[in-house]
Amino acid sequence: MRDQTLKFHFLLFLLITISLFHSANSNYLNLRRGASISVEGNTLITSPDNSFNCGFYALPGSNAYWFAIWFTNSKDKTVVWTANRDRPVSSRGSRVSIRGDGTMVLTDVDGSVKWQTNTTSTDVVAAELLNTGNLVLKNLQGEILWQSFDVPTDTLLPSQRLTKNKRLTSLLRKGSFESGYFNLYFGADNVLTLISDSPETSSIYWPDPYYDIYTNGRTNYNSSRIAFLDDMGMFHSSDKFQASASDKGFGTKRRLTIDHDGNLRIYSLNNSTGLWMIAWQALSQPCQVHGVCGRNAICVYAPIPKCICTPGFEVINPSDWSAGCKPAFNETLSNSQVKFVEVSQTDYFGYDIDFQPDFSMEACRELCLGDSRCRAFTYRTWGEGHCYVKSSLFSGFMSPDFPGSTYVKIPRSLQVSKPSIFQGSSNTCEHREAEILVGSVSKYDSTRRMVRWVYIYSFCGALGAIELIFITLGWWFLFRKHGVPASVEAGYRMISSHFTRFNYGELKKATNNFREELGRGGSGIVYKGVLSDDRMVAVKRLGDVFQGQDHFWAEMRTIGKINHINLVRMWGYCSERRHRLLVYEYVSNMSLDKHIFNSNFLGWKQRFAVALGTAKGLAYLHHECLEWVIHCDVKPENILLDSGLQPKIADFGLAKLFQRDGPGSEISKIRGTQGYMAPEWALNLPITAKVDVYGYGVVVLEMIKGIKLSNWAVGDTDDHEIPLKTFSRTVKEKVQCGCGNSSWVDSIVDPRLEGKFSRKQAETLIKVGLSCVEENKSKRPTMASVVQILMECEE
Ligand SMILES: *[C@@H]1O[C@H](CO)[C@@H](O)[C@H](O)[C@H]1NC(C)=O
Ligand SMILES: *[C@@H]1O[C@H](CO)[C@@H](O)[C@H](O)[C@H]1NC(C)=O
Ligand SMILES: *[C@@H]1O[C@H](CO)[C@@H](O)[C@H](O)[C@H]1NC(C)=O
Ligand SMILES: *[C@@H]1O[C@H](CO)[C@@H](O)[C@H](O)[C@H]1NC(C)=O
Ligand SMILES: *[C@@H]1O[C@H](CO)[C@@H](O)[C@H](O)[C@H]1NC(C)=O
Question: Where is the Protein kinase domain (predicted)?
């Protein structure tokens, strides 16, 4: 008898052990009503194809857990949904169960409810995780009573819909587990919007707040408010916004996530490595995200984005820039005690208590002094001066392309040093700098890599949705939560109306029946004109453009949005019957070739400025506008000089217009100018932005030498070697045997300068020029790195 009891007990023990062991190792496919899972049990709900897991997710570096869904096959087990994001539970005793009343409940160790679904249907049979990553509660009939897709956190999975009243919210910062301030949602105007919504400020930063809805390529009439990512990697929104993953196609696992840096990205999973690649992002420039650096701070590219404090302010928490900076002085100031410190090339978004167009700098200063709320004023010089009086300093950014400065009110007694990021010596503010956002250098690099990869597949062209440009025209307008001041709104309307469709009669009149010819090129003849509002323009009459009206209009809109100080601005176009005309700003000082190869040549200082400005313009085309424009015809004739001898690149964006039978087919015959054309044109290789780098290299070498090096055609036989090849070979030899002695520079630089040039700059420029004309395109630098190198030796 006793034996039997013992046996029985032993069997029971064995059974229990086996079942425990079993349950600890096997994955539940689903969770039935009345059952529960716990942290200790280590049980998971898995999707049938095992691509997603759902269960307790340990927060690294803590004893806390989320009830979450994550990708099984990504290296870092990327979380796509969290039930209790801001209320993690303890590692012991926490459990998720489906109660008899049909609610799924997450309880902490003390039994307190940390999260629950509010399904109170006794029909609920089980919770299942679908192959899409959706956790659902189903009834006997298989109907879905609740789904995690309806309560997203920061990620949208393919086939999941973002709808009215839902939002994606970022994490607070890299490595944190709380909700942050950046949100994606449909605004009351039906437009899909990114907003920075911190306790201190609330500011929309996407779509570009400097433009109106239509210029941003959106609409507000469709009130269905639905956005989703499809299985091919296309993102669609009911406001007409569309984006496409650069690796568009079926079979790849993707997600759309709002990251802790405020950017919205589509990621694609690489099966073999388990790593995510960025396949699209909403903002090409990290500093476009409002509030990324917090109050009184400035976002700068150095060249990795960083936060620094406004002079006179100190960082509050160096490991969390969203807290911003605080004044290093007593805030109550009387006018007799203050001075203004200039923060050049810097603007702060919004908080304008006053805006005055056509104002003098002195009057602007007086305006600020006269208002005790004024903390600073921004003065923009683009044509006339524009004055913005600011009550707070939020969303500051510094960019070499911003045509103006902000003057910050600080006590007269306070000594501050200016931030000098762009002078290449950032020692003074090094201790205040912290790396923000795209998180780490490597991630930033991966974006860049992606960009390069993309070039190959999208010749000279557009990819994804229309992304707007960072620096706009001479009118900053502000967008506040509570509306836009009327004066500013007027300026804003002018921006959007500045890109115009002209009719043929207007342009005929403006150019006095096409009388004064400014120049002619492969794509057409350019005439001088004056518009009815007295603006001087250059009107280009295109030759045969075999494109329909719609396509032409789409191209024009894209080009019309490109705006950079070193690019010739397009004011509008005309497309009527067979007439195709483009209307550009008039640039007064002719093209670069007239200033190099003639007796009327530029001095060194101007040549260097032209080299740097041209590089900036190209870098902007290649890296900063998401439309990734390749110029395809960089040569001195296409670099115009304005009245201050600053370069402006003309004719960008036209390569696509002349494309006939699809990408790459006949372009080489139409675009490109012999002598400036990279070898890959002749070899029929994929055309990338590196063709512009090559053209730029030839231009730079010509500017240094002062003679044309591009005289003969590419591809001639060796006995008739082109001057460029000979030149670069001899220079390379000199560089090599120079052995640290830079006297070789003298023998190369234009003798007409009679030695009046900076050796350091000349040496740098020669080396840059040579590397740009490397035969192997992968050895050529990017335009962004050329800008960086040249800025380091700017004087
Ligand atoms: C049910 O869920 C919705 C959305 O999550 C929430 O707003 C609502 O308060 C919940 N109701 C109950 C009774 O918990
Ligand atoms: C509104 O958007 C939805 C979703 O994109 C679409 O199905 C619908 O046709 C649109 N309605 C109109 C009137 O365009
Ligand atoms: C990735 O792996 C999954 C399953 O192993 C497969 O179905 C899919 O086709 C793969 N995708 C690619 C792009 O190789
Ligand atoms: C995945 O990563 C490997 C290694 O980095 C790379 O060779 C491969 O091309 C990647 N696959 C895709 C589809 O990008
Ligand atoms: C700041 O200045 C005001 C007026 O001069 C003074 O009353 C106040 O005590 C000062 N505060 C500090 C913290 O120095």
Answer: 512-795
